Each structure stands twice: as structure tokens, then as C-alpha cells.
Amino acid sequence: MKEDKADHLFASFGAILAILFLAFVGLIVVALFSNSQPFYIPFIFVLAGAMIIAVILSNIQSIARQRFFPLAIKISLGLFVLTAVGYHIHRAYDQHLIVSEQDVNVDDYLPFADHTKVVTLDKPSTYTLSAQDQLPVLDGATALYPLYSAFVRAVYPANDYKPNDKKSSVRMTGTGQAYKQLIHHRVDMIFAAAPSKEQEKLAQAKGLKLNMQPIGREAFVFFVHKNNPVHNLTSAQIKQIYTGEITNWQQVGGNNDPIRAFQRPEDSGSQAMLRRWMGDQSPMTPIVDDVASGMGGIMEQTADYRNYKNAIGYSFHYFATQMHANADIRLLAVDGVYPDEASIRNESYPIITPFYAITASDRTAKDSTDTANPNIQPFLNWILSKQGQQLVRKTGYFPI
Description:
By secondary structure, the chain is of the alpha/beta class. The chain has helices at 2-33, 37-58, 61-64, 68-96, 145-155, 175-183, 197-205, 235-243, 269-278, 317-323, 341-345, 376-383, 386-395; strands at 98-99, 138-140, 189-192, 208-225, 232-233, 260-261, 288-292, 298-302, 305-306, 311-316, 329-331, 333-334, 352-362.
């Protein structure tokens, strides 16, 4: 009898060691390969703890002999399985609501691809570069890639310009990275919205000035879920939403729902635009996601817009209506003016902004044309010409 009890205790000790080992392996796997660490790390601890408690209780005869004990074990395991399944169902739903630049397939806008979506000129370009010329190395914002890809198709020699290739003459790294590439002399020209204060400071620290040439106009727009009953907000109301003064849709004529005001990462063109538009008022702390980082850590990053019924977000008109059109979102009128082609063209819509072709030069340079590549200024002159502005219009932007 004593030997049986000892054997049972020894087996229980072995089971506990096995549970701890499997939990350790599970934590390593989650830390290295999963982006669901905030859920699975505590889940593994709780599951392992529950299993160890079950093993210990199985050695207490007064409990182990109860009829409910095996059923309680099965129910507990079932609840853990349902919790994991429920988490993934909710996560899939949440991911489905995301509206992000990452969803855009920039390969659709490769300048010389067979089925490219980039627009073309009505006539051959009056300015071209050959393979023997020193091609200006380009980079820029995701939303402007279709435009400067059209410039490349008209002017550059045909080639496979891969946007994610560091050796390509035509790249697309997004606004934040594009400014860094320009400031560190890795590219000659970028296409983007105006820089943030941090990007300006970075250029100044490198002894550079950013030469900002407007090449087109765009509208900065706000959007909500299509079923949101609010169709119009004043500029003041939007600013109060993003400072946290207005927190419920009922305060602006909508449903009694808390407002989820999404923002963009600090180095993005749209976030820089929001800050410029808000002037002296600072946006509140943005909604964030916990994401996996290196060595199993967890870091916070600004959450992508999720199209909840009580959400509000912002972007530029072209991206929201053409490059990443979404039938489940609806643009808001601002100060009573809806952002359509007519109101943007005549600038009756209140938030119109230029976008730029940007170069960097030494602050001691006499003028912005003092650059190492002799083809930058002629290329920029062509962009400002009738043909270049035709591509601005045909792409979906508004000429200057």
C-alpha cells in the first residue's frame, strides 16, 4: 500500500516536471514565433498552474474519489480550449477591421510592369533619361508611389525598379523612412507631405536644409464607419475629439457611444499633417497595440485604424478613396463641405495641403539646385511642366 502511494507520488512529481518543461517550451515558442504574446504568455502560466493543481489534488484521496473530479478536469480543459478559440475568433474579426497602408500591394504600381495601374501621358515625354544618365534615386510615401512611378514610366529607361530593393533607383519605404534616406544621402529626391518637426530637426542636425517644391495638392480627410449617423463635423469638433475634450459621439449629434479616435505613427505624413492642422493643440496619447519585439519582448506601437462603428480616423483623399478604397468607411464633411473632386479643386473644402518633391542640400548652398546629381533639377522642372502636371491630375491628385 505504501509502495503504491510512493509510486503515485513519484508519478505525480514526474507529471509536474513534464508540465513545467512543456510550459517552458511553450513560452520559448511564443516568445520567438508568435505575435500574440500578451495573450499566450499569461494563458500558458494559468494553464500550467491549473494542471499542476489538478495533479496535486489527485493525490488527495478525499477529493480524487469524488465523482465530480474527473468531470471538473474535463470542463476546465474545455474552458481553456474555448478561451483560446474565442481569442483567435476575436483577433480575426479585429484584424478584418484594420485599414492600413500595409494592405496596399505596391507591385500593382510598378512603372514598367505589364499590367501596371500607373497612368501614362497622352504623348511621348518631352524630357527623358537614358540608362547612361545618372538617374535621380527616388523614394517616398506609399500614397504617392503611384504618382512618382508614373513620372518614372514617362522619363526613366525601362527597367525592373523594385520598390523594396535598396539598390533600386526607384524605392518606396514610406514617409518616415524616406525622410531618413534623404537626410542620410541615400536617395536624391523624395515625394511626401511636409516633414514633421522631428524630421526637420534631424535635417538641421546634419547641417542640411530641405528644399520643398510643391508639385500637387491633396485633401486631408476624416472618416468613420459607414453606419455612423454623424455626417459632418466642424474643425473645432474634430480638434476637440483629438485632444480628448469630446469623448462621446452623442456630444456631436451621434449615438451614445465612446469615440475611438485612431491616429497614425509619428513619422507618417498624415500624423505630421494632423499636428500642423491642430496648431498649438496637441493630440492626445494615441490608441496603441502590444506587439512582439526582438528577444521575446513586448512593445507598444500606434494602432492601425480599425473600422469599429464608433471609430474615427484620417488620411489623405487619394489613399482613402482610390488606392485603398473601402466601402465600409465614409468620409466626413468638415465645416459643412464634403471632400469631393469639385470642393478639393476649388478649395472650398477647408483642409487642402500641397505635397512635395523634396531634396536636401547643405545649408551653405547658394540655392536648391546645388546638388550632386545634375539631372535632379531638369527632372523637377519637367514634373512642374504641363506633362508632369497632367500625370498629377490623371493619377487622382490635383495640380498646383
